[in-house]
């Protein structure tokens, strides 16, 4: 038996490999978005794909999110499998009517007759000094909407494989990728098996506290857990991965084991994913807790441009370590 090989690639390259593999497997799949073709993508994710697959499958579009997202929804209804790239999450507001009032509702409004198998990729999160207009973690906007599946790509494995699973869904999928991680290189085992996009994933087991997170906070939480283990605190790290529908079974089971919870996310605390998770734990796992649920979130300000202020606006590894110590030792 031959073991799967280990590869060392960037998050950007892992995303590109996933797109390329999808295009190779199914001729009904195509990529469309602003600058995805000749320019190679705003973040160079699709660089080289135009030469490989041609203009009919790598499609540059006008600067009109409402227009090209609507065209993608129409193509999905007609039997194609579009991958729509929205450059950054803030631009998706210009297509919100198409996503919320059309893609998310058509199956229900057609009495189950009209599926919309479209995947909409968008870069999210804080980092790379993109300032207040382009630095947002708005996953909770879309996780609020029935009819959508909302996924968060927090690891290199998911960057390569999650798109392939999303394209098998008969329902519209919002796929959040993270700008701050694009250049990050990691070594991981290349696995061609299908990723389960209905389940959260326990990335590190532990007995003292459950750290629940997603997106670009995943690796920070894993690094913090390694440092905490050196002082005898064993943290269990859960990557939510699926933000709608939430896999509450996984995180409630973890809480029942560790009895303490820290939820970490870059997004603002008010009306956030962490607020929803906290509420569900209080409703369904209250008697498993030895301490109140604690949340570590982004500071509620428009994200500043200077790098040191940008870093201060979101949870860092040192913040996670400090918070866990306080929760464990009741300082």
Question: Topology, pairings included?
Answer:
Layout: E1 6-10, H1 11-25, E2 29-33, H2 49-53, E3 58-60, H3 65-77, E4 81-88, H4 96-103, H5 106-109, E5 119-124, H6 131-134, H7 139-143, E6 149-152, H8 156-166, E7 173-178, E8 185-189, E9 201-204, E10 209-213, H9 218-229, E11 235-239, E12 242-244, H10 248-258, E13 261-268, H11 273-284, E14 294-298, H12 307-312, H13 317-329
Parallel strand pairs: 2-3, 2-4, 4-5, 5-7, 6-7, 10-11, 10-13, 13-14
Antiparallel strand pairs: 1-8, 6-12, 9-11
CATH-derived topology of the largest domain: Rossmann fold
Number of separate strands: 14
The span between the termini is 51 Å
Low-confidence stretches: none
Rg, Cα atoms, Å:
20 Å
What series of H and E elements makes up the topology? EHEHEHEHHEHHEHEEEEHEEHEHEHH
- What is the CATH domain class of the largest domain? Alpha Beta
Describe the structure.
- By secondary structure, the protein is an alpha/beta fold.
- It folds into 2 domains: 184 residues, 3-Layer(aba) Sandwich (Rossmann fold), CATH 3.40.50; 129 residues, Rossmann fold (3-Layer(aba) Sandwich), CATH 3.40.50.
- 36% of the residues lie in helices and 22% in strands.
- A 7-stranded mixed β-sheet has the order 3-2-4-5-7-6-12, sandwiched between helices.
- β10, α9 and β11 form a beta-alpha-beta unit.
- α3 runs parallel beside α4 and α10 crosses α11.
- The longest helix is centred in the N-terminal third of the chain and has 15 residues.
- The model has no long low-confidence stretch (mean pLDDT 95).
């Amino acid at each position: 038996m031959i073991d799967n090989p280990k590869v060392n690639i960037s998050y950007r390259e892992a995303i590109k490999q996933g797109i390329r593999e999808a295009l190779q497997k199914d001729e009904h799949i195509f990529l469309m978005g602003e600058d995805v073709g000749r320019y190679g993508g705003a973040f160079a994710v699709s660089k080289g794909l135009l030469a490989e697959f041609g203009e009919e499958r790598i499609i540059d579009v006008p600067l009109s999110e409402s227009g090209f997202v609507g065209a993608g929804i129409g193509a999905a209804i007609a039997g194609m499998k579009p991958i729509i790239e929205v450059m950054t999450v803030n631009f998706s507001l210009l297509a919100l009517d198409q996503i919320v009032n059309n893609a998310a509702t058509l199956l229900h409004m057609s009495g189950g007759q009209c599926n919309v198998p479209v995947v909409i990729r968008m870069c999210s999160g804080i980092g790379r000094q993109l300032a207040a207009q382009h630095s947002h973690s708005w996953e909770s906007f879309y996780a609020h909407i029935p009819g959508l599946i909302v996924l968060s790509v927090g690891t290199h494995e998911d960057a390569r494989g999650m798109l392939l699973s999303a394209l098998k869904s008969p329902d519209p999928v919002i796929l959040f990728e993270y700008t701050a991680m694009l250049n990050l290189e990691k070594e991981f085992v290349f696995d061609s098996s299908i990723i389960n996009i209905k389940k959260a994933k326990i990335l590190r087991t532990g007995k003292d506290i459950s750290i629940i997170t997603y997106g670009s906070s995943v690796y920070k939480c894993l690094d913090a857990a390694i440092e905490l283990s050196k002082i005898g605190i064993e943290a269990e790290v859960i990557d939510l991965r699926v933000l709608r529908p939430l896999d509450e079974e996984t995180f409630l089971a973890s809480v029942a084991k560790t009895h303490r919870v820290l939820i970490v996310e870059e997004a603002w605390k008010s009306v956030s994913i962490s607020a929803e998770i906290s509420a569900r734990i209080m409703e369904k796992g209250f008697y498993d807790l030895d301490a109140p649920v604690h949340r570590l979130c982004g500071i509620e300000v428009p994200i500043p441009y200077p790098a040191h202020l940008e870093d201060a606006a979101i949870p860092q590894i040192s913040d996670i370590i400090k918070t866990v110590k306080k929760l464990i030792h009741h300082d």
